[in-house]
Amino acid sequence: MQLTKNFTLEEFLISQTAARLNIDNTPSPSVISNLQLLCTNVLQPLRDKLGQMSISSGYRCSILNSRIGGAAGSQHLYGQAADITIPTMSNAALAEYIRDNLMFDQVILEFYQLGMPQSGWVHVSYTNGVNRQQCLTAVKQNGKTVYLKGIVA
Fold this sequence. Notes:
The chain is α+β, with helices and mostly antiparallel strands. 29% of the residues lie in helices and 25% in strands. It has a single domain (2-149), classed as Muramoyl-pentapeptide Carboxypeptidase, domain 2 (2-Layer Sandwich). It has helices spanning 16-21, 29-50, 62-67, 91-101, and strands at 2-4, 7-8, 54-57, 81-85, 106-110, 121-125, 134-141, 144-149. It starts with a strand and ends with a strand. The model has no long low-confidence stretch (mean pLDDT 96).
């Protein structure tokens, strides 16, 4: 199913964990609607401006989200979020571009390491309601994930 001109539903459902554990990651109609909003408002404009992107995580059913250790309230559960990279730009620059140019709910620069432009990934979300324009950076401190305010690179 085509969500926008460059994005299909199938690419948001791919999961090696789901395949390995035989988890049915089929989305509901409301999840599909949320994915269309995410693509229309964030991902397609990024693709049009910046080129090819990779989606490392899209929709996750609750069983899959639990198995990979995802947050209980993750926006991935509702089709409102994707973890992305663009091979031609650093993940810090990608997070900053989203922050400066698009409407979004959250943008999180996750596990980026200074001096390693392709390290980590960018989590971006969009909701049908009020989008918070919240910017965070996820880092490991003492073995735990900590969220810093802003894009810290």
